[in-house]
Specification:
Elements: H1 6-31, H2 33-44, E1 45-50, E2 57-58, E3 64-73, E4 75-76, H3 84-93, H4 98-106, E5 112-113, H5 124-127, E6 135-142, H6 146-152, H7 165-169, H8 171-174, E7 179-184, E8 197-199, E9 206-209, H9 213-229, E10 234-240, E11 247-254, H10 263-266, H11 276-285, E12 294-296, E13 301-304, E14 307-310, E15 317-319, H12 320-325, H13 329-336, H14 341-350, E16 368-369, H15 379-384, E17 389-390, H16 393-405, E18 408-410, E19 415-419, E20 425-428, E21 433-436, H17 440-456, E22 470-480, E23 483-497, E24 504-511, H18 519-536, H19 544-548, H20 560-585, E25 590-594, E26 601-605, E27 620-621, H21 630-639, E28 643-647, E29 654-655, E30 661-662, E31 667-671
Parallel strand pairs: 2-9, 28-31
Antiparallel strand pairs: 1-7, 2-3, 3-6, 4-5, 7-8, 9-19, 10-11, 10-24, 12-15, 13-14, 16-17, 18-21, 19-20, 22-23, 23-24, 25-26, 27-30, 29-31
Helix pairs in contact: 3-4, 9-18, 11-17, 16-17, 20-21
């Protein structure tokens, strides 16, 4: 076969090359058309994202707790700037950092990103110039309250990603859909002053919480004052509506400035005696005891399973109601021995302990409630006293809500509703019953026991005198590294208010207080402060009309301090009565004369104001003010008619000594405790 000549080879190669070009062109135009179209658009247009504003977070009355604010970051390409002198002047007027101004002026850098961020109106004249590429950034503005910030959470300042709180738990709801804007560029890549193609962002949804901002502020101030004055390492307060499960306030404080967690849901603790009412309810429900049934309490000392159980209130015998009233460890251990370990476990498990409440907050702890198969010989008694299990403040407040509402355990709620930007409601919270944990009759019986605790038991500091409060205190030993620490306690109080028509369940807890360790005094006092402030507030989620039906005449203060104050008041009242009676005996001022025309005598009552005759003061005993606070001691001495001079010495010491007969009006020296 004859080989092709050179010309044929060249022609063949040229034909094949032409076919390849035609094939390539066909492929790019027919099959890769969309790819090259997109690339062309990218070359002629600059696309940038428009951040969507996150939804607002509001309190239950509609006050804004968190909102988004649009800021601008200035990004400048100096080589694109047409009038550099004007840009430099405008940057100085906007108070841009001088180092960025100099970088723009020398024009050596290709790209400059200015910090910090600016409000759009403050740099509007700058962003309108060619060569300036503004980048919109949304910043979250939070309420000033540290407690509110623990609830709502934070965003990462660099990435904008949610870090904790409601911001994290409801990120999908609060986060909107990012928009885009495209701006035309010329052949050299410079931005052209032409209208852009804008795909606007869709804002996030607004979230309304059940938190009442006024009540939250009250709780935070009360907690802060208590932690400081009692020298505690921290504390928590939870306020709930027992009929709806709504969390009205959630305050946490730690002396460690780095602590930012909402410890009311993240840090469990051993509840101590605040758990005793649930043991009482279990006994009543099963017919194993009655409120007035009496049991031997061995004068406050009882040996059981190799250990000795002690009572602060020593008594030979107590009824079940008095076991709760005086927080008898011996009494509750002996009564609850009628329950099997499995029944005790079921009682506490049904109350919600050992299981997360599923409240819409990240990092919630489930606490710990061990199965009876893992209990030791002493566990059954320990559990009855509130040890060997840990609960969060929110769990315990939720369980007490069941006592207050008649026996139903509710799912706690912190989100009231979710709405679109136009107000369309997408979600509305509703009352959710988890289970019934005690009968209504048992709940009513326990309510009465808890009212007695505040009226004359271990928690009188929580008493409001004109409105009944019910509750239970706890003073539990604290552990570190699995061992109990000598002298370290958790002081707590959980109760409801008013006792007859509960609107609040309040839990107050103080960690390791130094001034006093007892829950009834430390935490009960905090509860008293919160309730008084809430009643005085204009809006603290209280139905004042309903509250008025619970107000009664002040109950007498039967404490030693109250009795001394009442005696001093009676003394002052009797002195005033003597002065009033002597004033009435003074005759009116008169003048006698004789009529010169007739010689008849007559009497004229003078119009001048008559001066009262001085009250004759008699000596009286100096009151005993031992044990009274300084102000109360001063008031008592003043009420008895003495002047007071505060001097050095033990608080409550007086000179002359208490009981000494002394003339009113004279000075009594009072020790100020220095």
């Amino acid at each position: 076969m004859k080989a092709p000549d050179r010309l044929t080879v060249v022609h063949t190669v040229l034909v094949l090359f032409a076919l390849a070009i035609i094939g390539k062109a066909a492929k790019e135009q027919l099959w890769n058309h969309e790819k090259w179209a997109r690339q062309g658009v990218q070359q002629h247009y600059e696309a940038s994202e428009l951040p969507a504003p996150r939804g607002e977070i509001l309190d239950e009355s509609g006050d804004v707790l968190v909102e988004s604010r649009e800021l601008v970051q200035l990004r400048i390409a100096p080589k694109e700037v047409r009038n550099r002198k004007t840009l430099v002047r405008l940057m100085r007027l906007a108070k841009v950092d001088e180092k960025y101004v100099k970088q723009v002026a020398d024009g050596k850098r290709a790209w400059i990103e200015v910090q910090p961020l600016f409000l759009p109106n403050d740099v509007a004249s700058i962003t309108a110039m060619v060569g300036v590429h503004p980048k919109p950034i949304l910043e979250r503005v939070y309420a000033n309250s540290a407690g509110i910030r623990r609830i709502v959470g934070r965003l990462n300042p660099q990435t904008g990603a949610p870090m904790d709180g409601i911001e994290l738990a409801l990120d999908d709801v609060l986060r909107g859909d990012t928009g885009r804007v495209r701006v035309a560029r010329d052949k050299s890549g410079k931005q052209m002053q032409t209208p852009g193609d804008v795909d606007p962002p869709a804002p996030g949804r607004n979230v309304t919480l059940t938190i009442n901002r006024n009540l939250q502020d009250i709780c935070e101030h009360a907690l802060s004052d208590a932690v400081d004055s009692l020298r505690a390492s921290g504390g928590d307060i939870v306020v709930m509506n027992p009929h709806t499960g709504e969390v009205l306030a959630l305050a946490s404080r730690r002396t460690d400035p780095a602590a930012i967690a909402n410890t009311a849901v993240t840090e469990p603790y051993e509840p101590g005696s605040t758990l005793k009412p649930f043991m009482a309810a279990a006994l009543l429900d099963r017919g194993l005891a009655k409120p007035n049934e009496v049991i031997n309490t061995f004068n406050g000392e009882y040996a059981l399973d190799g250990r000795v159980i002690h009572d602060e209130h020593k008594a030979a015998a107590l009824s079940l109601a008095d076991v709760i009233k005086f927080s008898s460890n011996i009494g509750i251990v002996r009564f609850s021995s009628r329950l099997t370990p499995q029944q005790k476990y079921e009682t506490l498990r049904d109350a919600g302990f050992g299981t997360a409440t599923t409240v819409t907050l990240p990092g919630e702890s489930s606490g710990l409630l061990r199965d009876p198969t893992k209990w030791s010989k002493q566990s059954s008694a320990s559990v009855a006293m509130g040890y060997e299990l840990v609960v969060t403040p929110l769990q315990l407040a939720t369980a007490y809500s069941a006592i207050a509402n008649g026996g139903e355990l509710l799912e706690p709620q912190i989100v009231k509703q979710v709405t679109k930007a136009d107000g369309t409601v997408l979600y509305k919270g509703s009352r959710r019953v988890v289970r019934r944990i005690m009968s209504e009759s048992s709940a009513l019986a326990v309510q009465k026991m808890l009212r007695d605790v505040v009226e004359g038991g271990t928690s009188v500091k929580a008493d409001l005198r004109t409105v009944d409060v019910a509750g239970k205190s706890g003073t539990a030993r604290r552990t570190e590294h699995g061992k109990y620490v000598q002298g370290a306690y958790t002081a707590s109080f959980v109760g409801f208010f008013p006792a007859d028509r509960p609107q609040y369940v309040v839990l107050a807890k103080l960690d390791n207080p130094k001034a006093t360790i007892y829950g009834g005094i430390a935490a009960g006092g905090v509860t008293n402060v919160v309730l008084r402030a809430a009643m005085a507030a204009s809006n603290a989620s209280l139905d004042l009309h309903q509250l008025a039906a619970s107000v009664h005449a002040p109950t007498p203060d039967t404490s030693a301090e109250g009795r001394r104050a009442a005696k001093a008041k009676r003394t002052a009242d009797s002195l005033q009565t003597i002065a009033d009676s002597q004033a009435k005996k003074i005759p009116p001022a008169v003048a006698a004369d004789t009529d010169p025309r007739t010689g008849a005598s007559y009497v004229v009552t003078l119009p001048a104001v008559t001066r009262l005759a001085p009250v004759v003061a008699t000596v009286r005993p100096v009151p005993d003010v031992t044990g009274l606070p300084l102000r109360a001691a001063v008031r008592t001495l003043h009420a008895a008619g003495f002047r007071v001079q505060i001097v050095g010495g033990p608080l409550g010491t007086v000179e002359p000594a208490a009981g000494t007969a002394y003339m009113p009006g004279r000075v009594v020296k009072l020790g100020g405790g220095q």
